[in-house]
Amino acid sequence: MERFVYADNAATTPVSEPVLSAMLPYLEGNYGNASSLYSIGRSSRKAIMEARDKVASLIGAQSSEIIFTGSGTEADNMALKGVLHSKKARGRHLIISTIEHHAILHTAKALEKEGFSVTYLPVDHFGLISLEELKAAIRPDTALVSIMAANNEVGTIEPVREIGELCRENGVLFHTDAVQATGHIPLNVAEMKIDLLSLSGHKLNAPKGVGALFIRKGVLINPIIEGGGQERNLRSGTENVASIVALGKAAEEAEKHMEDNIRRLNELSKHLIDGVLEAIPYSRLTGHPTKRLPGTASFVIEAIEGESLVLMLDLDGICASTGSACSTGSLDPSHVLTGIGLSHDIAHGSLRLTLGIQNTGEDVDYILEKLPQIARRLRSMSPVWDAKKQCPVGLKE
Asked: Which of 167, 319, 326, 391 is flagged as catalytic?
């Protein structure tokens, strides 16, 4: 192995040095329960308040509107179940897209089993929803629209501001799963008319096991975890102080460096995308060519199995993924890729390379050195590739 390149930052990110330094004291001397009256308990409570301020600042919210959770998945569940259960006497209808993360899709399926109604909006070949179709789907009993800010597999950024305005005009609450987007692109919940927003620490260089849900002041939801009444009685359980502090520091760092990070990651991903498409015949970019997350490069490479590609990249020290990390192990093609119109056989050749703040131009050069070699090696063993070369109908450079 010549070197190690981590290029799966959409799956999780490494904990940054400033974040680790900020959280360590709360794993050592400042280990008090934030509900306690003595000094180390008060210290923990103060740290949580400061972290809440930092997370709120990142998304243009008020501190009182931030509820800490154990993950982005929990935040999604809290948003959907909390809103639908609180409004079920007047509205039992939910609208989501077909390419949402499983935290949304599976929660919607669970709500359907409880008797709620769900509309699944299709997307175009870039992964974008239609505002006209969304408007047509809104009914008098629609309680909530939940559309992700950016897709976790192909990186397409949805028209969040326009969705928020449409929902506000129609008196419908709007939730966005912004787990992939928060800290990576500018989000302002007030300007975008977002009523609820989910985020996760491990997508922006904080540890796994901490997230948050923004709930706009005045929006009432039912709790899904009962207990001691922490987090405004909405998320009971003794607070994970060290990880909450880490999330606050990560939010602060993301806000401070966002402009530079966007510029640098866009440059790196452009170099990566151009290099892959030039070096590997019959490969194509998935997702929107410009309305995409910085650092995100997702492809389908025909006549190659994505799993084989990822395993061989790993042998060369490159961490990548095929489809979404949360669905690894499934033989079914990605619902996102089939949702944007790709056939099953082409969707099986998916590759996602996502760069983070720690990646360099040398990392991209190393990927561009190894990936085309691996693609040629795999195709040389593929009877599918031989057949496609003989009958190239439908193949695209």
From this structure: 326
